[in-house]
Design a protein that fits this description.
Belongs to the sigma-70 factor family. The protein is mostly helical. It has helices at 16-27, 31-39, 42-49, 59-76, 85-103, 111-131, 137-144, 148-157, 178-182, 190-204, 208-219, 224-231, 235-255, and strands spanning 167-171, 174-177. Among the domains are: 111-157, Winged helix-like DNA-binding domain superfamily/Winged helix DNA-binding domain (Arc Repressor Mutant, subunit A, Orthogonal Bundle); 205-256, Arc Repressor Mutant, subunit A. A two-stranded antiparallel sheet has the order 1-2.
């Protein structure tokens, strides 16, 4: 795995106006301008690869992957995004590393999980036609005679990561990409983006049921009673699990 050699790393941050000028030059083929941009943003790459240590890969390999993401960010950046370049570059750097880890087989889905996910999907569709509503997790589990946790795990394993440049919708004929949604808020800064990445990694470390409860509670705005009905457990159990998970997430994020 090799990337072009750079003249060195600079700790000082470039002014926004200077960054914009260098990006324009780099996008027009100025190699020196690209090297200057890379050298002044290598610290950003190093801070991002800290998220992926202890996964069986050399730090230098991860660093080179991050640099590839940085170069892609330089080539794809558009001043009309109205965000700082570093804010835009963070998900590009992280995305390049995650894409490699995924394609390299670091995340594998077993045949059994795939088969379970397929059965769950077909059962959900059949029960929806039969009941005239979405079936609860407990109803699907009873129908397939498997544990609810196994259903959640199978569905999670079958989920596909979203690409930053997927078109979400069109605005007056112009495509709106996922990256636009991430960076749309003018108040969004580097820390906000990094915090989101830390939160995403922390959620991934939770048990399937715990993650399901947090997602339903704080991302789908479900009440504890509604979650209890979906999961087929009591509201008290949901409350206890939620309290336990929030405390665990605080500890995990402190270590991040």
């Amino acid at each position: 795995m090799n990337i072009p050699a750079f003249s060195g790393e600079h700790n000082e941050i470039l002014e926004h106006e200077e960054t914009m000028k260098l990006i324009k030059k780099a996008q027009n083929g100025d190699v020196q301008a690209q090297e200057i941009l890379v050298s002044h943003n290598l610290g950003l790459v190093r801070s991002m690869i800290n998220r992926f240590t202890n996964r069986g890969y050399e730090r230098e390999d991860l660093f080179q992957l991050g640099c590839i993401g940085l170069i892609k960010a330089i080539k794809k950046f558009d001043s009309s995004y109205d965000v700082k370049f570093s804010t835009y570059a963070v998900p590009m750097i992280v995305g390049e590393i995650k894409r490699f880890l995924r394609d390299d087989g670091i995340i594998k889905v077993s045949r059994n999980l795939k088969q379970t996910a397929s059965k769950v999907k077909m059962t959900k569709e059949r029960l929806f036609k039969e009941f005239g509503r979405e079936a609860t997790l407990q109803e699907i589990a009873d129908e397939l005679n498997i544990e609810k946790e196994d259903i959640v795990l199978a569905l999670d394993s079958n989920a596909h990561p979203e690409y930053l440049y997927d078109v979400i919708h069109h605005d007056d004929g112009a495509p709106i990409y996922l990256i636009d949604k991430i960076t749309k808020d003018d108040s969004l800064n580097d820390t906000d983006v990094i915090d989101r990445l830390v939160l995403q990694d922390t959620l991934a470390k939770l048990e399937p049921r715990e993650r399901q409860i947090i997602l339903l509670r704080y991302f789908k705005d479900k009440t504890q009673t509604e979650i209890a009905e979906i999961l087929g457990i009591s509201q008290v159990q949901v409350s206890r699990i939620e309290k336990k998970v929030l405390q665990s997430m605080k500890e995990l994020m402190k270590k991040a």
